[in-house]
Design a protein that fits this description.
Layout lengths: L1 H14 L4 H23 L4 H25 L9 H15 L7 H29 L13
Helix pairs in contact: 1-3, 2-3, 2-5, 3-4, 4-5
């Protein structure tokens, strides 16, 4: 367990060494991915929808820092989002037609969907840039 906590602390250290807009985006993402499953449960989302969103949150809160501990803060740091959020975004987009629930639930799902789609756009672009040779650490100031 301490290795996961160490990985999270190291990851957050690199995130908070980034430009302010990246820090704000990271905080926004964490708030949305943690609040969405809680709100979905409160507003009576379908059990499967709620569990999928909650499971994606748990998986990525652990996977991204552990992945970061393996590769560093390079363009591939968001790679774990791709296999988790791509099918989830497609599924939620398809499910939007079936959200006849309160407007608050629809709003939560839409905010979550837009947030992960924007994140995925960054992740896919970064993965391509990495494959094209941009392998240096991303905007992490040199120590000293």
């Amino acid at each position: 367990m301490s290795s996961v906590i160490d990985a999270v602390v190291n990851f957050l250290s690199d995130v908070f060494a980034q430009p302010v807009w990246v820090q704000l985006w990271a905080v926004w993402m964490v708030v949305v991915i943690v609040a969405a499953p809680v709100a979905m449960r409160k507003y009576g989302a379908a059990r499967r929808d709620h569990l999928l969103v909650a499971a994606s949150t748990v998986v990525l809160i652990v996977a991204v820092p552990l992945w970061h501990s393996q590769v560093g803060y390079v363009r591939l740091v968001g790679l774990p989002h791709i296999p988790v959020w791509t099918p989830l975004a497609v599924y939620l987009y398809w499910r939007r037609k079936h959200l006849s629930s309160p407007w608050q639930l629809r709003w939560v799902v839409y905010v979550f969907m837009v947030t992960i789609v924007v994140s995925l756009a960054f992740d896919y672009v970064d993965a391509v840039r990495y494959l094209l040779g941009e392998r240096a650490p991303v905007n992490v100031p040199a120590a000293g």
